[in-house]
Amino acid sequence: MAITASPDVSDINLTDLETFVERTPHDWFKRLRDDAPCYWQDEANGRGFWSVTRYEDILTLQKQPLLFSAGVGGTSLDDLTPEQVESRMSLLDMDPPRHSRLRALVNRGFTPKAVKVYENRIRSLIREILVETMPLGEFDFVEHISVELPMQILSDIMGSPIEDRHTLVSLGDRLLGNTEPDFVGDLVKDQSDLSQYAHLPFSSPAALEMFDYALGLADLKRNNPGEDVVTILINSELEGDTLSEHEFKLFFLLLITAGNETTRHSMSHGIAALLQNRDEIARLCADPTLAGTAAEEVIRYATAVHHFRRTATEDVELHGQQIKTGDKVVLWFTSANRDERMFPDPNRFDITRTPNKHMAFGLGGPHYCLGSHLARLEIKVWLEELVPYLPGLYLNGPVDRMRSNFFNGIKRIPVRYEGASS
């Protein structure tokens, strides 16, 4: 398919990972929203894809999961065979009704009531982490704080030993950061090398290690069952049906990576935004009850996952462009969350923003984030417990971003703590 882009957007290349190292290209997304809201993006190593960038368009497409399918081609930009799609298909890549069946197995573990029981644990844990970390004076906020809280809470929920958390974080980094040299080294030099792993989630060999870990943990839980999600998964039955071993492995991988990485990067972006907007620190410290709206603004402003891909199952027209059956259609949530049509002054970080109906959790469709209630609770409590420290906390160097146009990740945030202000 050959589509000629209008001259004013022809320099935009959403496959250029180096641009995403420098910044999230919100300037590009604004131009696309204004001038080419359904934009054809060529790929050097792929078939190309349609980029959808406006809030209302993405919301509409999300509500049509059989027309814009997650299951036909998967949710990544990879061009996969049907066999490869099936082999790596997690809950994330399924369409209803198959998606509904699997989601029902664990829904009860992530309801607002279910996650509320973790509030005291979250509060106690973040206090411990802050008391231990702040006396260091100078430290990496990601390593010492953003990584620790989500994974320790997730270990409780999943039933994995707390001492394994850094192993799981490392595996998650290698899975979701498969274009980041710090995480996967030489694998990023030639992306064609990843073709041999196309049957694995995120085309990553780290998936095999995560699968082995999952099976080992399942064996442990069969002998020592608990109240955790892994115990639920290996014993769940829905209308006489149970999870296969492969379904279990994929489910575990998804829950571990999504449950840790999204909250971790939201927290990292959140602290960076606060430290770059010290007037917002003053507002939060003056009124800590703003932590709830501040958490929503952190989640919107960060948008931890830039996009998800869908595949058109029928010919359809959008903004005068002819999307053909089988075309890749990419929903850019990071653009939707800065759409001026929905959010006044969208590039402003405003902890009192109301309403704030952001799309960071996949609003409008069946793939609405399973862990959204937990993420909201973690970030709200984290902000509340940070309040005493924020006046004395400062950036101590440049923020180091991940090389990825899929995950809006931050690798390092050097900070210094000068003690509580008088």
What attributes characterize this protein structure?
single chain; 422 residues; alpha+beta; Cytochrome p450; 5-stranded mixed β-sheet; 18 helices; 12 strands; globular; disordered N terminus
CATH topology: Cytochrome p450
Please tell me the overall pLDDT.
92
Count of beta strands: 12
CATH architecture: Orthogonal Bundle
Tally the helices.
Answer: 18
Strand order of the largest sheet: 1-2-8-5-3
What is the string of SSEs from the N terminus onward?
Answer: HHEEHEHHHHEHHHHHHHHHEEEEHHEEEE
Taken from the alpha-carbon principal axes, the silhouette is: globular
Strand content: 5-15%
Total domain count? 1
Question: What percent of the residues sit in helical stretches (DSSP H or I)?
Answer: 40-55%
What class do helices, strands and sheet pairing give? alpha+beta
3D structure, described in words:
This protein has 18 helices and twelve strands. With 422 residues, it is of the alpha+beta class. The protein has a single domain, classed as Orthogonal Bundle (Cytochrome p450). Strands 1-2-8-5-3 form a five-stranded mixed sheet. α10 packs antiparallel against α12 (206-223). The longest helix is centred in the middle third of the chain and has 32 residues, at 245-276.
